[in-house]
Specification:
Elements: H1 7-21, H2 25-36, H3 53-69, H4 81-101, H5 106-135, H6 139-160
Helix pairs in contact: 1-2, 1-4, 1-5, 1-6, 2-3, 2-6, 4-5, 5-6
């Protein structure tokens, strides 16, 4: 089976990677762009809610809370079952939305986004802990660097949707 790296594939994978790093940041990108610029791309689909202004605002509040919560010492590991499930669902939702908006199979987009989110969650966890051990940089500081990467990547993806 040959996999074509289409624009939609790259967007779904990129949003999945962001979801693996910060679960609510990927839906922020999709809901912001689709609610303001692509407002009818998902009409008559089960995921049409993501293109509303209300969803956009809710996801922004949740993403801001996640940015703060990630730095707290009692925050659970991103690879625990609940964290992985949330990241997978976030990536899957965004991947499905991108594929649906591109007139492609949203199920395939959801798999790409969700799988990318899981891979990113583990990869970033190992990278973050490894950087902390090798450099002595406190984990919250590495978390802030990760936030900057997420925001920068999300902004770039939003311009490309």
């Amino acid at each position: 089976m040959e996999v074509k790296l289409t624009h939609a594939f790259m967007q779904a994978a990129g949003l999945g990677i962001i979801a693996g790093m910060r679960a609510f940041s990927a839906p922020v990108v999709i809901s912001h762009v689709y609610s303001r610029h692509l407002s009818n791309e998902l009409n008559n689909s089960p995921i049409a809610f993501i293109q509303t202004i209300t969803s956009s605002k809710v996801f922004k509040v949740l993403a801001a809370a996640e940015l703060v919560g990630d730095k707290l010492p009692y925050t659970p590991n991103r690879t625990n079952p609940g964290g992985l499930t949330g990241r997978f669902l976030s990536g899957a939702l965004c991947g499905a939305a991108v594929f649906k908006a591109s007139n492609k199979n949203p199920f395939i987009g959801g798999l790409i986004g969700g799988t990318s989110a899981i891979a990113s969650a583990f990869g970033c966890m190992f990278l973050r802990s490894g950087l902390g051990k090798r450099t002595g940089i406190p984990d919250p500081v590495i978390g802030i660097i990760e936030d900057i990467i997420v925001i920068t990547a999300g902004t770039a993806l939003a311009k490309d949707l």
